Amino acid sequence: MRTAVSPLVLLQPRSLREALRMLREEGPLAPLAGCTDLYVGLNVGTLPGRRFLNIWGLDALRGIDVGGGVLRIGALTTYREIIRSADVRRRLPMLAAAAREIGAVQIQNRGTIGGNIANGSPAGDTLPVLAAADALVELRSVEWTRKVPFTEFYTGYRASVRRPDELVTAIEVPRVEGRQWFRKVGTRAAQSISKVVMAGVRAERPRVALGSVAPTVVRARRTEDALASGGTLVEAQRILQTEISPIDDIRSTAAYRREVAARLLAKFWADTR
Ligand SMILES: Cc1cc2nc3c(=O)[nH]c(=O)nc-3n(C[C@H](O)[C@H](O)[C@H](O)COP(=O)(O)OP(=O)(O)OC[C@H]3O[C@@H](n4cnc5c(N)ncnc54)[C@H](O)[C@@H]3O)c2cc1C
User: Fold this and answer.
1) Least confident of 155-169, 178-192, 255-269
2) Shortest-distance Cα residue to atom 37 of ligand 1
3) Residue 173's beta-bridge partner residues?
4) Do β-strands 207-211 and 159-160 pair in parallel, antiparallel, or remain unpaired?
């Protein structure tokens, strides 16, 4: 590991309240959940921070339940728990589909949905699902709890409205009407970061969200308008290609991503007819 371990500080809160107090009074601290993203940064020596807050033991942040028509998923819920949840499979099957394609079994056992959200990679596979589902992100500090629409959570590349003294504590998803669809395009079936990832909901007012095609996850509102108004699929594909701003990088090219995004839209539309 390139990062020297001895100067690192790890705080071990015993409760959510204590964790929030530490964030407020002893920060800046990087919350450490499943550590599947953080460890990569430690390993390659690119993490700027040296002080961490271990939230893995905070059971208040675990669990999936349904109440008042809302599916609530605790931030520390792992992909394995999401895949196994009958509530998720029934109410948000596109999230179970995304979780099944994240990393492989090891990452699914350890990686958390809160970590995927807070990490904020535009390639995060749960993000298009949460954008298409009109989810809310619950943020807590010592003093308040607030809920932010997922589509307003990110402010730029890996930047969000989360304050340093807040934790992502849960995600809430209202009932989603319509047929759900998810597709990830990567280099291979497992251990592959998305080149393009898309989630869609086919309803009177269709919803379309994509990852890996812009600095943040994109909710393609103008494409949705085109589909809702009964325009042609070709027109919707053309609009989609203007709503995304993919780049060339180590995993793919902008041109390939544009082409794949348009094809995924066609596949979504055909599969959910
Ligand atoms: C081999 C490998 C394969 C992977 N494959 C995929 C993949 O296919 N798809 C994909 O999307 N990702 C993938 N990842 C990335 C990673 O597994 C996920 O992003 C995972 O969900 C991160 O969760 P975590 O609990 O491990 O987060 P951590 O590594 O613990 O934290 C990640 C970031 O979020 C912050 N954070 C964590 N929890 C909270 C919280 N509750 N509140 C505030 N901040 C918080 C941390 O401070 C850190 O900045 C892969 C990683 C590896 C190593």
Assistant:
1) 178-192
2) 115
3) 71
4) unpaired
The C-alpha atoms of residue 157 and residue 133 are separated, in whole angstroms, by 21
Looking at the chain, the whole-number percentage of residues with pLDDT higher than 90 is: 88
Residues 6+ apart with CB under 8 A from 210: 128, 196, 197, 198, 199, 217, 218, 220, 244, 261, 264
Residue with tokens 């009177």: 204
User: What strands lie across the sheet with 9-11, from one edge to the other?
Assistant: 9-11, 51-54, 30-32
Instruction: Check pocket membership of 208 for ligand 1, CB cut-off 6 A.
Output: no
Q: Is residue 36 within 8 Å of 76, Cβ to Cβ?
A: no
CA 76 to chain centre: 13
Q: Is the peptide bond before 13 cis (omega within 30 degrees of 0)?
A: no
pLDDT digits (tens, 9 = 90+) for 6-25: 789 999 999 999 999 999 99
Kindly report, residue by residue over 108-134, the tens digit of the pLDDT.
Answer: 999 999 999 999 999 999 999 999 999
Q: Which two tokens stand for residue 262?
A: 């348009």
Token couple for 142: 């010592």
Angle at 87 between CA 86 and CA 88, to 5 degrees: 90
What's the average model confidence in pLDDT over 52-72? 97
For residue 87, the number of C-alpha atoms closer than 13 Å in the C-beta half-sphere is 16
Q: Is a pLDDT exceeding 80 seen at residue 189?
A: no
- Strand boundaries in 157-212, DSSP class E: 159-160, 167-174, 179-185, 196-202, 207-211
Could you tell me whether strands 167-174 and 30-32 are parallel, antiparallel, or unpaired per DSSP bridges? unpaired
Ligand 1 atom nearest residue 127's Cα: 11
Ligand 1 pocket test, candidate residues 62, 109, 116, most atoms within 8 A of CB: 116
